[in-house]
Amino acid sequence: MNRLVITAWIAVFSAGCATYATTPRIPETVAALPALQGQLEFEGSREFLPAMLTQLSPAGPGLSLVFRYRYDAKAGDVDLSILALFNPLVLVGFPTGSASVTATAKLEVLADGQVVKEYVARTEGSRLRTIYTGDHGAVLRRNALTETARSIDAQIALDHATLVHLGNSRTGSATKSNGGDE
């Protein structure tokens, strides 16, 4: 009997937990890397930008890289509250519905108006709702967008040397061609 009560309470308290799945999977830590040089194009809140993009250094003279970042979050909801009227288990935390969100983000790196690199990430989050937890759609959305930005950050970190070289070669070639014209 004791074991049954403990199991029931664990189920009740874990019903309010949220789960997130991010694709591609990201490492727990990303090494601190120097800032990239380029121009940032994005719409939305800076809160959901990957950290590598918030630290962009303004590009010097000549050609530069352009980082175009877009994100989106779609919410889903399953509401079973009408059934809760007839289910006495809701009083001990039985779910009355669920909320879910799917966040996607895309980063395009452009040089000379052409896309040279592209990074995509997707995070799906869900949470069961009880009469005690209420609706936490905004929290789900914020956490999913944050995880998506972290995934893009990790992908940038893996390609950091390539992006720095690409930015330097573009800036260097513009400086050389400008120098030869004088």
Please give a structural write-up.
The chain is α+β, with helices and mostly antiparallel strands and 182 residues long. 36% of the residues lie in helices and 30% in strands. It has helices at 2-14, 51-54, 81-84, 137-158, 160-181, and strands at 18-23, 39-42, 66-79, 97-111, 114-129. It has a 5-stranded mixed beta sheet with strand order 1-5-4-3-2, covered by helices on one side. The longest helix has 22 residues, at 137-158.
Detail the topology: elements first, then pairings.
Blueprint: H1 2-14, E1 18-23, E2 39-42, H2 51-54, E3 66-79, H3 81-84, E4 97-111, E5 114-129, H4 137-158, H5 160-181
Briefly characterize the structure.
By secondary structure, the protein is α+β, with helices and mostly antiparallel strands. It has helices at 2-14, 51-54, 81-84, 137-158, 160-181; strands spanning 18-23, 39-42, 66-79, 97-111, 114-129. 36% of the residues lie in helices and 30% in strands.
The termini sit apart by 89 Å
- Largest β-sheet summary: 5 strands, mixed
The count of helical stretches stands at 5
Overall shape: it is elongated
The helical percent reads: 25-40%
**Radius of gyration using CA atoms only:** 23 Å
Report low-confidence residues grouped into runs of 5 or more.
171-182
Name its key features.
single chain, 182 residues, alpha+beta, 36% helix, disordered C terminus
